[in-house]
Amino acid sequence: MLRAIPEPPVSVQVGPGDDAAVVQGQAITVDALVEGVHWNDRLGPEDVGYKSVAVSVSDLAAMGARPAWVVLALSVPAPVDLAWVEALATGVGSACRSFAVALVGGDVTRSPGPRYLSVTMGGPCPRPVTRSGAHAGDWLWVTGTLGLAGAGYLLDAPPPEALEALRRPRPPLPFALALADAGLASAMMDLSDGLATDLPRLCAASGLGGQVDPRSLPLHPTLGRIEDPVPLQVGAGDDYELMFTAPPQAEEQVRALAEKNGVAVTAIGSLTSPGPVELIGRPWPPSFSHFGASTPGEVR
Amino acid sequence: MLRAIPEPPVSVQVGPGDDAAVVQGQAITVDALVEGVHWNDRLGPEDVGYKSVAVSVSDLAAMGARPAWVVLALSVPAPVDLAWVEALATGVGSACRSFAVALVGGDVTRSPGPRYLSVTMGGPCPRPVTRSGAHAGDWLWVTGTLGLAGAGYLLDAPPPEALEALRRPRPPLPFALALADAGLASAMMDLSDGLATDLPRLCAASGLGGQVDPRSLPLHPTLGRIEDPVPLQVGAGDDYELMFTAPPQAEEQVRALAEKNGVAVTAIGSLTSPGPVELIGRPWPPSFSHFGASTPGEVR
Questions:
Q1: Which of A120, A264, A284, B163 gets the most CB atoms within 10 Å of its CB?
Q2: CA nearest B6 in A: which residue?
Q3: pTM as predicted
């Protein structure tokens, strides 16, 4: 179903299977968020609205695309809870302003089931960075820290910083654009489902294996008191940080660009010849869904 | 919630409230289809797939835009009924080929409720035709015939033509593009929810009243045996024909363009000074939702 059907009048540069499609120089991403699947009561309607926009910004950023427009489809049970919808709209508006995206349209319908939201966002993508361009020997980098949003979702009594990370992801858009513009990243994607799920996707798309050093995974100070944060760091999702690859000799430039954009970057491993995707010295922790929480993302 | 938030870098030519938004010369439309709300068991999965694309083609056509790309978000209950999803994909592919649209991406997620599909489509729109451009005295035109799809949805034993009209709408895309290109239509929208709902929308957008002569409504021969087809013709939806306005002196050109494109057109009334929207000689029949069937379109 997700195969592209290219037609003569349309130039499809990147089809299904990446963070976004690229059609005639424009990146387009679609995401569905279902109540009870993609959010629970740790997110209020304003958070859901904000996050629905931010996760699409993250997808476009990961392609090297600048978000320009967004449309929403919302389905809600009747009778409509207007306060809920208005709070959602407040969050949408707040994120649109934060990331300079224009909300240009929407469709609101009845749902006999849970609340359902789909977000489609597009914007110019002059130089797409896909998941498939990594080379063996490239270093693997991530922005920010890993696991904080997962802690917000999964811990019984999450610290406020973790709830904030869960509710208000802040994808590093300017850095992503600068990285794409400089041609430094050989491959890039966003960390939405967690490293344990997302790194194998990048490796598969590039036809490579990978190794990650768990001791190098960037940790937010708040998670320092957790005995073993690695399961949260690689098994949980929702960080909406960038994961990218670059040749070792690009290290200086990557660090300079990150500093210029106020973003922390950490080299956490490298891409290898075709083979397994490994965490050095320990097995991959179970992914998010095995924590007993709802499964984000795709039907498995 | 559906107000546009224009930002400096994006030129929004048409914001929310029309059949599609127009951003930097590109029309974009989003539609959500919920099982049990927008389709029932008279539509199989292949029909749903076909129709989900065709209704967005209809929205873009009504703006004078040529569909180029489409993305889908699908939510289905677990465990996934693969045969259902594959039949949906077959219908999507068939419509994409029919209308020369490239399916460039999608998102598939779990739904704890009904099946849910959202479709976002875009394409170039060099000369947008909105709902708001009609003038008092303009004639009101429709393409094709009215009520056949509604008969397919609402009648106990619908004729095969009516079921086909319901399942496989064929919006008159080439004619719509020719009409927009020629600058003949002062306002245009598609008939998705039925004349009783859609004409007041066009009149409101143009700040005008309107009069429709019920005797002039084009009738499919199949509906000739129904004693009073007018309720179906104006109260039911799902025709996905075009409704447009043009000055009286454009009649010859409109008819010539329709003939050239193999489309039937009928003048059914006219736009009047600000005032009521009327069916001459009788009240508006109740709209679709009052037939006891599910309500298409917006939350009311």
A1: A120
A2: A102
A3: 0.89
